[in-house]
Amino acid sequence: MFDSPLSASAYEVLTVAPDASDEELRRAYRLRLRQTHPDTGGDAALFVQVQRAWELVGTPEARAAYDRGHGFGASYEPDTPQWRPPHAPNDTRPRARSFGQPGGWRRERYLTLMREWSGRGTTLENPYDPALVRRAPREIRRLLADAIAEEATARIVGELGMGYTVWHDVAVDPRDPDAKLDHIVLGPSGLYGLLSEDVGGPIRLRRGEIIGDGVDGTPVATLVARTRAMARFARVKFSGVIVVVPDDDIATAIEELGKVKGVPVAVVAQSALSTVLRRGVAGARDIGGNELFDIRTRLQQVVQFA
Asked: Which of 68, 95, 117 is the last residue in one of the domains?
């Protein structure tokens, strides 16, 4: 949560100044616990964020470490200029087949807009400097946050093994570069369209849709529409769609929303994604044998990347 380019700092979550005394910090934490506790009408996701914030700054040692890093990740840069599924040197386990570059389109757009906003053009020394990132407009930080979320999903899917195939940054409409599927995952549990989403704060679910202060538009409806469009184009049937969000942004790790436009939908925390992809989404049909091979072949023939 606190490493996201969009997220509030631990002090902001606790509504206290960074230079507050330890006693002021403790009082603020207790107050925020009461305000956000689900049993008293609070928001469960906010309640989790308050607890996580206290873990980061609740002791002198933890607070000192947090302050040294200013609450930011060491870097927002990708692992390598051209993403590849990461693996340990001695890790010989078979990995999922992977095509495309997760987060690539959004990182490219982020770099373009960051250089324009900073006014430094190609002379911008480090567009991923956390201090610079935090000053950028939200729409620019959102691009970076979603790119990082896509890369996190790609790492998780890569660990599923050779029974799975994944396509990243798939173009849905060549006329509209924004119309893409973050990931298409094919495995024994089914064929899924995935959206990797980071809105920088808690989300809630209402009538089959994601809502929250940082949510733009209708993510679930858009994902379903793009998945259905890809299904028609490739002549395949998707088993369902999955929205993947940071662990701290959702109160329950796996939320099954039923069917939207006839498509089973789940919203899951990153840490629960591999479980869902292995077992499948409720209402989805398993795929195996020749059918899996046929679907993979059809997608390989038509998939284009954003």
From this structure: 68
